[in-house]
Amino acid sequence: MSAQYAHNVQRIDMAPAVADKAMRQGVMASSAITIDNLTKRFPAPGSGDEFVVLKDISLTVDDGKFVSIVGPSGCGKSTLLNVIAGIESYDGGAVAIHPKAGSAGSGPRIGYVFQSPRLLNWLTVENNINFVLEAHKVPRSRWRDLVAKNLAMVGLAGQERNYPLNLSGGMQQRVAIARALAIEPDILLMDEPFSHLDAITARKMRFDLMEILERAKPTILFVTHDLSEAVFLSDHIYMMSTKPAQIFKHVAIDIPRPRKPEDARVFDLEKELVREFFSVVEAKG
Ligand SMILES: Nc1ncnc2c1ncn2[C@@H]1O[C@H](COP(=O)(O)OP(=O)(O)OP(=O)(O)O)[C@@H](O)[C@H]1O
Ligand SMILES: [Mg+2]
Q1: Cis peptide bond prior to 244, omega within 30° of 0
Q2: Model pLDDT for residues 16-25, shown as the tens digit of each residue
């Protein structure tokens, strides 16, 4: 049984017994997201033509893994996340979101931290989070605890009654992160979530994210420009080129956790990837 949801993203919702049997038969790996030869075009500005933004993108994100996508500005990273989230259409290939192994019939819960906070300015911080909890049918009795726990996690305890426009840009982004975490997502899409934070807060948030990963084991697909952040956080990195965006390298990282940003292995891998990244991206122009 499978269901289409917005824009052809195939959400495979199946009863646990069917899913387990499929897994045993090897029909379905324990993947959370699979993308096969995805192509996406946008209208070219000022002409009737189209340009290819994503070309033949294939990647797999396994259950409970932290996967990063690194690519230059404008290459199509946000577009890729929007396609996966089902809020952007695509032109070729296939995108599938799989249920968590052994989960009940409903599809996975997807949290999305957008590149900008996208808060509702007329609602309090608490009601911004409640709004999403309600949309995901989280029982009302849990709202207060989930709001308090996740605001504390992002260093914003006590800001429940404040309004977004009274917060700094970095604080707004942290509310957006708390909002995505509050639904206790199976899959978390994060689009450069720490890039607007100061270095100290960003470092703390990376450690907190590692802890969440240890406890809740969500699947995370994380977009960043920052290769050192990607190496520190990820199990896998996909590196993208531009015009059109194509994946030119996939790296599996087996540095044991918990990791330290100062770990020589993190540092060495970052250096190697930076060298390769610039040689490919600069050659493509
Ligand atoms: N809705 C749209 N209509 C037309 N073109 C678009 C649309 N959204 C994005 N684009 C174009 O697609 C390309 C990729 O945009 P996207 O926002 O996905 O890049 P990005 O990799 O996330 O960049 P950044 O790192 O700067 O956030 C850009 O050329 C952009 O102008
Ligand atoms: Mg972007």
Answers
A1: yes
A2: 444 444 444 4
Q: What's the burial of 282, exposed, middle or buried (CB within 10 Å: 0-12/13-18/19+)?
A: exposed
The three-state secondary structure class of 85 is: helix
Pick from 159, 185, 211: which residue ends a domain? Answer: 185
CA distances from 84 to 119, 193, 224, 234 (A): 21, 17, 16, 19
Q: Which of 42, 191, 239, 281 to mutate to test the pocket of ligand 1 (most atoms within 8 A of CB)?
A: 42
For residue range 64-116, list pLDDT tens digits in order: 999 999 999 999 999 999 999 999 999 999 999 988 766 665 678 999 999 99
Contacts 24+ apart (CB under 8 A), 213-216: 213/66, 214/257, 214/258, 216/184
Which tokens sit at 221?
């697909």
Distance CA 40, CA 53 (A): 6
- Characterise 217 by phi-psi region: left (phi > 0), alpha (psi -120 to 50), beta (else): left
Q: Please check whether residue 32 is in contact with residue 63, taking contact to mean a CB–CB distance below 8 angstroms.
A: yes
From atom 7 of ligand 1, which residue's Cα is the shortest distance away? 42
Residues with CB under 6 Å of ligand 1 are: 42-43, 53, 71, 73-79, 115
User: Which residue, 164, 185, 206, sits at the end of a domain?
Assistant: 185
Concatenated DSSP letters for 246-279? Answer: -EEEEEE--PPSSP-TT-HHHHHHHHHHHHHHHH
Residues 77 and 134 in one domain: no
Q: Given pLDDT bands bounded at 50, 70 and 90, which one contains residue 243?
A: confident
